[in-house]
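Hi L., both proteins are below.
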Amino acid sequence: MTTPETGPAPSEPDVRSPSESPVPPAAAPVSAGRSRRGEPRTYDFRRPTKLSREHVRVLQIAQEAFARQATTILTTFLRAGARLELVGIEQFSYDDYVVTLPNPVFISTFSLEPMAGKGMLAYPLDIAMAIVDHMLGGSGRADQPSRPMTAMETTITNHLLDRLLDEFAASFGTITEIQPALLGHEYNPQLAQAAAGSDTVMVASYTMSVGTREGEATLVLPFSSFAQALNNAASPQLSESAIAKRKRAAEALTARLNLVPVDVSVRFAPLTVSSADLLSLAVGDVLLLRHPPDAPLEVTTNDVTFAYAIASNHRRRLAAAIVPTPYAAAKDTA
């Protein structure tokens, strides 16, 4: 007896950071153009994750809005079925991202005025050629050439890309004001110098379909340019009562920290001796200190020197009187 099979449940965009990316079964094949998704990557502790969950949530809203508007524009311009759907947002170094792109691939770079740095939009070259075919009245189903675009094809494509960049700026208006402008195109990923190799970039991955063709598109933005804007956008807008409550909590914490007991030591300058000399010490031996007789003692806590003092007494008890640091005293006498 058989039961009817049910299709897979629709999945939501994957917005995990690189350290949270799911690990697929070992036997699952991974295509060369999609190696940055669906397989484990080595975590480089020299380049820690900078894209927090809050950043991802803010970016997801903007990127999904851009995907919706881009779908409308593509459908209107091409008069054919077209779709751009967000898959996920991740952090990469620019070099790590570039090596995942196929060659050739259609890459458009654009400025991010008034911010520094460049953005980059990349998608398969055959889809880029099919878009030109559609805009010229063709069906887009024929085999597309794998070559750089001619001057006329580039002009036609630029008209569409300018509209997409306008929608990109509008979608990111909730994060920061930008005025992107198209800079140029490249077909070899190694020649697309949108950032330094070690720079951290934010990569939004999309599934892109035009007619019967489907592929992966990526939108790349420099993290350093958007870091402050993302922090501001990710910070919740608090009411006056919530702000006052946080202020009182901070004041109470500060007051309690001021009452925490701390071990303080007054000591001579540390002395270094060999292990043999240390083990041979006996009662009556004299251990020569390297502390100058006119130098103040060090006042330390947790091996950190924060003041200087001289030996004194107070009400029949040995005490230490705080004095200026040796550097300040030398400066005053100079």
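That was the first. Here is the second:
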Amino acid sequence: MSAAVAVSPTKAELHAMPFVRKLDGFAEEEAIFGLELIAGRLCEVSGEAALSLTISLVLQAQERSEPVAWITDKEHAFYAPDAAANGLDLDALVLAFLPDASSKARAADQLVRSGAFGLVVIDLAAEQRLPPALVTRLLGLAQKHTTAIVFLSGHETALGSLISLRATTRRTRRAHGEFVCELVAVKDKRRAPGWKHEEVLRGPTGLY
């Protein structure tokens, strides 16, 4: 029996990969910021690469047939053509457009309460606060249904002490339209903070 020979992809093949795929040796099993890590938790992600890394989470969920809901407003929704071109199944994504943080949180309450969703993303945009009672209720529902709830926040400490994982992000441009997107955990109730997660992503116009 002959031994299997690993063949590295060519540069052209790498550039043809969807933007959410890891390049240049970032192995799939090395990923830290994934659905297993955030299931049943409230997570707050801020910074310039927050949108990109969260869309990567949505793709993880869709690959596992986990229903996903994304709650935002019409001014801050992600650029759908780029997301679809890079693998996001828009037909399988529940999108809700609501005008303010409180209504977004109440919608998330109803969605998570159904027990049908593996991941719910709440884009708070520039809003800094949610009523503590709503956050408390979402925490209980996330734990009950093992649902990952991710808040996209304009401020790294917007949602107070009930957040289980808080992370900041940044991106560094590389050649050929690629970016290194780095996430740093500044708070993690399940492990020591300070750990980092990186993905090399292609950056289509509109997504960043």
